[in-house]
Amino acid sequence: MGTETAVLRNEVLVGGEAASYLTVERDGPAVLLLHGTYWSRVWLPVLDRLADAGLRPVAVDLPGLGRSGGELTLATAAVPALADWVARFAAALGLSGPTGVAGHDIGGAVAQHLLAHGRLEVSRLALVNSVTYDSWPVAGVARFRDPGTVAATTAEEILTARRQAVTAALAGAATERLVADYLDPWTDARVRRSWMALAGAADNRWTREAVPALRRSATPKLLVWGEDDGFQSVGYAERFASEIPQTTLVRVPDAGHIPMENAPGRVARALAGFFTA
Question: Where are the alpha helices (DSSP H) in the chain?
Fold first, then answer.
């Protein structure tokens, strides 16, 4: 078991702005790890374990979020625009050829779009407590589709709302220190604005539109799901696994929306086994 000592934070320029990412430098095949309404921190508990399995994990912060530069707008926060950005990020890293992609939360919508629209040559697709079909946006995100709500929301209100969401998502793993670690990027006004743009652009048309291409796709797919998720129900995962070919569902008991924190060993074994198969 890794102790997270080998994890590095690096950056590369994408469109003139710094794209920050967590990685463990390895010669093995790269796996792109995409976050949604959180940031690359969600992947930290499994990075060393993926590297130990021979993979080169790359957990990127989307523009304006986490530690990345730039700032999202409603246009650049839409799933197709984020997918295009991820493709440019992969090119900036020098990744070419078939690449494994994993997405959590709205990052899963971006991952589905990458595969469905061929924006990246996705060799294998993993979704971890991801948005699918019409499962999103959840109420706490959807309210930011109202420009009036965005304009009236104070920094304190955003931090309070994110604290509640993060605490719920972490489930049994939530400690004051861990919640504070997750919340840190939102102390930056630019990140708060970017997050509200991501929330305001949240639209399930992108996951619904991807379904026909996913049904035709022979690309291997893995769903890893914390069963106690109050944001993305395991029922959606069961539906996806029953309707989309080449899909395997791994259920993670006693885990919430961020199962990497509740059961890092189980999640990492599932992902490592899938991406090294």
Answer: 44-52, 79-92, 106-116, 139-142, 147-152, 155-170, 176-183, 189-201, 205-216, 234-243, 259-262, 264-275
